[in-house]
Amino acid sequence: MTIRWSLFALAWLAPLAWAEAPAKLFYTSQTDFTEMTLTLKRADALQPEFIEVDVTLTPQARERTKALTQAAMHKQMTLYLNGRQLNTATVHGVLSGPGLRFSIPRDQLLEMMPSLLK
Question: What tens digit of pLDDT does each residue of 66-98 get?
Fold first, then answer.
């Protein structure tokens, strides 16, 4: 490997080595949600392979969500539901409302359904 290639590889990989890991937001449907609604199909869905989930958070989950999104502002955050990773996104605002909407891949929802029904 030439010196030039080594320097290029180092310059390209260095940001990955120092990249900050995403914040992690964990929810358990049995204890963190007071209501949960699944939208299985919408005519205007941009990504029909995903199921929309609307939830109402418990007061404790709402405070945890607010604190974590405030701390992770403009950084990556990964959402977990019942121990399963759903998605990672950049936090652009503090989530403080009682309601929350996210999406679950259709195939993953089928696997998760027993844990959501408890």
Answer: 999 999 999 999 999 999 999 999 999 999 989
Number of domains in the chain: 1
| Model pTM score | 0.78
Instruction: Give 26's strand partners.
Output: 80
Question: Considering the domain boundaries, does residue 1 fall inside one?
Answer: no
In a domain, 40, yes or no: yes
Contact (CB, 8 A) for 100 and 57 = yes
* Strand-by-strand arrangement of the 50-57 sheet: 33-39, 50-57, 99-105
> Does residue 35 lie in a domain region?
yes
Q: Which amino acid is at 56?
A: T
Instruction: Name the residue range of residue 34's domain.
Output: 21-116
